[in-house]
Amino acid sequence: AQSVTQPDIHITVSEGASLELRCNYSYGATPYLFWYVQSPGQGLQLLLKYFSGDTLVQGIKGFEAEFKRSQSSFNLRKPSVHWSDAAEYFCAVGEVRDDKIIFGKGTRLHILP
Amino acid sequence: EAGVVQSPRYKIIEKKQPVAFWCNPISGHNTLYWYLQNLGQGPELLIRYENEEAVDDSQLPKDRFSAERLKGVDSTLKIQPAELGDSAVYLCASSLGSSGRAVSYNEQFFGPGTRLTVL
After folding, report:
1. Which segments in chain B show pLDDT lower than 50?
2. Which of B41, B45, B106 sits opposite A105 (nearest CB)?
């Protein structure tokens, strides 16, 4: 069965510092992978997705993620965070065939001024 | 263009009372999803509609939860009776439709959710 593990419940970084959020997945075939962001009181917004091809995926708001099959990982990165990046981030794995996606438990990002 | 609209945004009820949530998807989106998001967890699918047909309701607790999408546009999710453990955020999402092929993906767009508190 598909599953997603986000090992960090909370992450705190200083504004301007680099960021990496970890995500590990379990899936029997080539996975379809996603990162979503959820700001307080807002719905989830898709940051980026990986289906195939280049393992380094660029997304919105300056985020990128790298798919590493050997490590079953899809970590999210940003070179310099802004205070507005404080939010909850969800990694997800999906079945494109029926648009069904399974979410991880999320990582809450805190930004220090 | 308006996004996915949900109402109410917040609801407080006493246990054993009924409650209903409403969702209006993005215009033209055939697929509609209801998710449950417990505190500190990721969203979990409750039910998925393709037009007016519920194509995946395997995770919907049918003893107390029901949903409908009568005209294939907006949808209502109901809980009757509500229990303390139902306190959560209920998210609605929509997409253009299941592609049926493993080569494309229809992005799901999420509404802001309804936060339910059962006392």
Report:
1. 99-103
2. B41
